[in-house]
Amino acid sequence: MTKINFDDIINSITLFEYKILKPFYNLYNGYLTRPQAQVLSLICDNPGIFSKDISILLGIPKQYSSKIVQKLVSEELVVNKQGLKDGRTQPLFPTEKGISLLNNQINKSNNYFYERLQKLTSEESEEILNAFSVLHKLLKKI
Questions:
Q1: Residue 118 domain flag
Q2: How many domains does the chain have?
Q3: Is the pTM of the predicted complex or chain greater than 0.90?
């Protein structure tokens, strides 16, 4: 087994953050903060998720995730519905407006990254796409 160099991993994550994630969240043009965009994305990917689960998945305090959810509800990007099993719980669902905003951002992001990939050779583009595919598969396991 190859020895893990955590400095290289951290440097790669930092580069990924700078080259990939930061531009994606900047595409919201101030409409949503990065944490708000992350929560909206999580709700769109997991309709019916609970606020407490959001705080666990994102590693943020429950109070903070609740404030973010309140903002998304006030912007009509998310709705909370009374839970079927427990009336005190409120599962969260994206609205059409929320889904539309997220899809718009994803399209802008795809265009942005497509432009970046044009700077690479076709072999390099294929290599990076394969690497992301492997990374995605493995990260889902942890």
A1: yes
A2: 1
A3: no
